[in-house]
Amino acid sequence: MTNQKSKIENPKSFRVLGVRVDAVQIPDVIAQMERWIAARSACHFIAFAGMHGISETQYDPSFKQILNSADLVVADGMPLVWLGRWYGYAMRRRVYGPELMETFCRKTGPLYQHYLYGGGPGVADRLADALKQRYGVRTVGTYSPPFRPLTEEENLEADRGIRAAAPDVVWVGMSTPKQERWMYEHRPRLTVPLMA
């Protein structure tokens, strides 16, 4: 696990039940995402934490380790925003995952290549079409995994597909804690700059 200063350039954070939460807002996250994409130095991942996810860590220490190993853990729930304010941070709003994605796509348009992983059959394809129509977003691949654990061969095939598509960002939508576990486990095997 890397130290906190290497995770984000502005390392303001606080802890909630042993989980680091970074005191950032959507503009901060977008700026960091663009730095990671420009640097292309490693595969980073962003975890969107709410009280549900943090409470899960109390029953599953491995999930706590996964969240704390994320390069950025954002407050995706108002209770965490209120705690951040209590710690003295100027957190106006939560960093809601769909809002971050929409804002990033609106601001960057066709600048980056996106890969959409998750959702039911056809959902990622419909989202890719909507993002292209609205913002000119370039989606280089989608994958809707079955609602069961993937076999090792299926995991390797998914990784090969992502590597071959060479996206700048992989958006993972499978609900907590499944999506965070997936990013943590696949980060060493992927050559993309960013997963969120």
Number of strands: 8
Physical arrangement of strands within the biggest beta sheet:
4-3-8-7-5-6
What share of the residues does DSSP label as strand, in percent?
A: 15-25%
Low-confidence parts: 1-10
Number of helices: 9
In total, the number of domains comes to 1
What would the average pLDDT be, to the nearest integer? Answer: 92
Major sheet size, sense and barrel closure: 6 strands, parallel
Order of helices and strands: HEEHEHHEHHEHEHEHE
Overall description:
This protein has 196 residues and is an alpha/beta fold. It has one domain (4-195). The protein contains nine helices and eight strands. The protein has helices spanning 4-7, 26-39, 51-57, 61-69, 78-86, 97-108, 123-135, 152-165, 178-186, and strands spanning 13-16, 19-22, 44-49, 72-75, 113-118, 138-143, 169-173, 194-195. The strands form two sheets. The chain has a six-stranded parallel β-sheet, with helices on both faces. The chain has a two-stranded antiparallel ribbon with strand order 1-2. Strand 7, helix 9 and strand 8 (194-195) form a beta-alpha-beta unit. The chain is globular and about 45 Å long. The chain starts with a helix and ends with a strand. The model is unreliable at 1-10 (pLDDT under 50).
Fold topology:
Layout: H1 4-7, E1 13-16, E2 19-22, H2 26-39, E3 44-49, H3 51-57, H4 61-69, E4 72-75, H5 78-86, H6 97-108, E5 113-118, H7 123-135, E6 138-143, H8 152-165, E7 169-173, H9 178-186, E8 194-195
Parallel strand pairs: 3-4, 3-8, 5-6, 5-7, 7-8
Antiparallel strand pairs: 1-2
